[in-house]
Amino acid sequence: MKMKTNDPKKLALLESLKGGLIVSCQTQKDEPIYTEDMVVKMAECAKWGGAVGLRLNSPEQIRKVKEANLGLPIIGLYKVWHEDTDVFITPTMKEVDEIVAAGADIIAIDCTAQKTHEGTIAWDLLPQVRKKYPDHLIFADVSNIEEAKHASANGAEIVAPTLYGYTQETAHIEGADFRMVAEMCRELQEEACVMMEGHIYSPEDAMKCIFIGCHSVVVGSAITRPHYVTKRFVDCLGKYQNNWRDAERAKHSNELK
């Protein structure tokens, strides 16, 4: 594996994820499936099914899964929504510190060119995280190739088009852009691992991602969020009168219903 890092621990962790499925186990407090132990059950199911890693949101849920001793590496993030910005994935160092303290093995942050609630540019956080946590892998959530290149150049070992469809420029998209991801893989092949995340709804599409060069694949809603799966079917059966992805993009409340 050709990578910018020579850290044997980082390389071993990346190698353990190669070619595999990472399951995003997340539930928000305002969702119908939320219970205090739901994220642990999701993670247990992911391990049972053969997942090589987990992607978890919030210190609380990271800590719960860590305590379950499942033995799978954790990509940690912390979603915080504000009305004046579309930046919501681990937007400041405060959230980074909290997920690291909770036990995240890999730090996921927004590395787009969007303006944050604090008035900064999201990707400006990356060099700060790289400096403070040199022993952690950084997972850069981006929306296009330019942001992926910028993230790699500034220290991210992993990049993923997680936010393709969640920025103003890409809000119109309906599915994965495999051609863009393939180009991302070619551009960064000796600099960073490209992991596919976002809009993958079948094993066949996941396999396509590996074929075009992705290091591994992250799948969330299609596996762990039955209310979104149901809404997607209903949207299709209803002749696309209501776009189910509006619900998927919705901002959430951190409070219990």
UniProtKB/TrEMBL annotation:
Class of this enzyme: isomerase
Any single biological process term in GO: N-acetylmannosamine catabolic process
Pfam family, one: NanE
Record Gene3D superfamilies: Aldolase class I
GO molecular function per UniProt: N-acylglucosamine-6-phosphate 2-epimerase activity
Keyword Protein biosynthesis: no
A single cellular component GO annotation: cytosol
Pathways per UniProt: Amino-sugar metabolism; N-acetylneuraminate degradation; D-fructose 6-phosphate from N-acetylneuraminate: step 3/5
Listed EC numbers: 5.1.3.9
Keywords: Carbohydrate metabolism, Isomerase
Catalytic activity: an N-acyl-D-glucosamine 6-phosphate = an N-acyl-D-mannosamine 6-phosphate
Keyword Isomerase among UniProt keywords: yes
Family the entry assigns: Belongs to the NanE family.
Entry function: Converts N-acetylmannosamine-6-phosphate (ManNAc-6-P) to N-acetylglucosamine-6-phosphate (GlcNAc-6-P).
HAMAP family recorded: ManNAc6P_epimer
NCBIfam families per record: PRK01130.1
Protein name (Swiss-Prot/TrEMBL): Putative N-acetylmannosamine-6-phosphate 2-epimerase
The organism of origin for this protein: Holdemanella biformis DSM 3989
Organism classification: Bacteria, Bacillati, Bacillota, Erysipelotrichia, Erysipelotrichales
Gene (name only): nanE
